[in-house]
Amino acid sequence: MTPTHLGPAEHLFSAEEVEAAIQRMAVAINKDLEHLTPRRPVVLLCVLTGAVVVVGQLMPHLHFPLVLDCVQVSRYGAETSGGSLQWRTRPKESLAGAVVLLVDDILDEGITLQALQEYCVAEGAAAIHTAVMVRKKRPRTVEVQVDYVGLEVPDHFVFGYGLDARGLGRNAPGIFVLLEDN
Ligand SMILES: O=P(O)(O)OC[C@H]1O[C@H](OP(=O)(O)OP(=O)(O)O)[C@H](O)[C@@H]1O
Ligand code: HPA
């Protein structure tokens, strides 16, 4: 199905392909984190809004004690190019001494994930692991560590599975390229 209300779109990955990629990420994350015996559960930080779908799919496949928290930051809003990072909600859990698993829907320029990693370090996290559902194949000016990547997408604006195009398309059942903007 092509979500026509967003205009012409190219179907990149089906829902089944995205779910399989998320499951592969879960296997890799479990391998790294389930043998840890931290004094407290891992803090899974869902990067709202877009990561809500990937986090919902990923969590039931994670086999270690975790607490779910969220951080809400935004730099695209109604645009298809990024601006300055707006902080909306900070985590409620203390990150001091915690093993943090940051989960976002996409790594594009990398500015969001880099800022969140710096935030976790500043809050005293003991270790930070990062997972993204999709990574855009593009040059980056920022150095950002990503430990788990579900799928690679071309350097075009994409939507679906939590990713929005001007606020819409987060419910699209798969990942699509928005053609009119690319
Ligand atoms: O790597 P970057 O270029 O920094 O972009 C990645 C970020 O952009 C999107 O968030 P957005 O600002 O659109 O907020 P949203 O999650 O509410 O859609 C996406 O969810 C990532 O968090
Ligand atoms: O390609 C994208 N699609 C949706 N949201 C995004 N945030 C950064 N890049 C993207």
From TrEMBL:
GO biological process: GMP salvage; guanine salvage; hypoxanthine metabolic process; IMP salvage
Domain Phosphoribosyltransferase: from-to ranges: 12-165
Keywords: Glycosyltransferase, Transferase
UniProt catalytic activity: GMP + diphosphate = guanine + 5-phospho-alpha-D-ribose 1-diphosphate; IMP + diphosphate = hypoxanthine + 5-phospho-alpha-D-ribose 1-diphosphate
Coiled-coil ranges (or none): none
Domain of life: Bacteria
Protein name in UniProt: Hypoxanthine-guanine phosphoribosyltransferase
UniProt xrefs under InterPro entries: HGPRT, PRTase-like, PRTase_dom
Keyword Ion transport part of the UniProt annotation: no
GO molecular function terms attached to this record: hypoxanthine phosphoribosyltransferase activity; magnesium ion binding
One GO CC term on file: cytosol
